[in-house]
Amino acid sequence: MQKARTTERKRNRGFEETHQSLIETAVRLLSEKGVEALSVSALAREAGINRTTVYYHFPSREAMIEAVKEWSSLQLARGMDAGSSRFDRMAGINRFVLANPELIKLWIDDFIAPGDIRTRYPRWDDLVIGMAKSLSAAHPGEDFDAEVYSVMLLASAIIGPRILQNSVASDADPAAISERFMAEHRRQLRRDGIID
Questions:
Q1: 24 vs 4, 46, 144, 164, CA distance in Å?
Q2: I want to staple 37 with a disulfide (CB 3.0 to 4.6 A). Which of 11, 33, 99, 162 is the partner?
């Protein structure tokens, strides 16, 4: 009985490791070649495994793209982790956006699609509550719409760096873009009393 449980744990661990590796490979393919180039066959070739194995993890191309979107949502959700400062969280989102332009296009489509944002951004309520507290503390007696403010911050963090990089300062490297964008973002957050 003990041997069967050990074998099952190893099998599950192997499945999870392969699954995660396939997602990361799909992310890399998508980032390098765009969503059009992402297919079960391309993923199998890139990962060096057969298509049957990929189908075992993702029954369709759409399921694979969904897994990539979920992975990107988790990466962006790190911008909600309470263990670091708000500015560090926003900077993390900013760096992720600049490093993964094709992936962010998929995420933006989901971000603006109809439906409850909480299904795509699980810590949304935490962000709104935190913003409401910060804004109320910094500006007592003023009436704030913390949801709208949160939408503005998130949209700025996700779309702003790409606009700056693609349309305003296209000759600058991503590190300079990030530094420039975050310097102004820091000033805005200080002005609003969100960070010290």
A1: 30, 11, 40, 27
A2: 33
Share of the chain above pLDDT 70, in %: 87
| Token couple for 130 | 């935190």
Torsion of Cα atoms, 133 then 134 then 138 then 139, to 10° = -50
| Global pTM exceeds 0.85 | no
- Cα separation, 176 vs 196, whole angstroms: 23
User: How is residue 123 written in tokens?
Assistant: 């810590």
Amino acid (1-letter code) at residue 149: Y
* Alpha-carbon gap, residue 167 to 32, rounded angstroms: 20
DSSP per residue, 26-74: HHHHHHHH-GGG--HHHHHHHHTS-HHHHHHH-SSHHHHHHHHHHHHHH
